[in-house]
Hints:
The protein is mainly beta. The protein has one helix and 17 strands.
Amino acid sequence: MAKFIMKNGSFWVEKRSTATDPVVTGATKGTTTQLTVANTLAVGDVVIVSGSGWASLDGKAGEVTVASGTAITVKLDSSAETTVFNVKATIHQIKASDWVEACLAGLDIDSGTADSIAVGTFCDAGAAIAGAGTNGTVNINGFVDPGDPGYQELLKASEDGIPRNFKLVFPKAAAPSSTGNNGGVLYFINATVGSISQSYQVGAAATFSGSLVLGAKPVFVPAA
Length: 224
């Protein structure tokens, strides 16, 4: 197995705060799926479907290939579905025009662990069971650049506490000589940015670090 070196990847912050997720009022299954929803989406935007009752859609991210009025077609294959679509499903909208790149030096993803729930009794005072797992956190670090729009957006997100979307774009191959960012995208949905710490030292580059508290489990979209 080739050693993976993260080169030519990129990290992006959504400029706008997260909008209310619109309700899907209908769906037509197929190798691509047509959804009926009030939207302002355009071709190239991405949606994540929730609550449809279709395993091929729920929790999946699909790129919008057609947008016409209240009908959008997304790159998700629902042709094998046999159950009735839940018309109370929602889509999370991620618009291509709303991203700004933040130049990071490093990123670590902590998947989170399940909380421990005490179920102690007289027989076993220390008994505990695992609770629901958390969505995890993403730790980020980089160099302070006041003129960088991505850095400014991270500071803004830290100050206002409004959940935003983030994405990590992977390079197209594990080889360090590869170029182009088409190796798939990992989306961090409804993540809240904690405080951004900054370090200024004599004779050293100014650095920053912080963390994203994830509002949902990361969603990976493979390269086409």
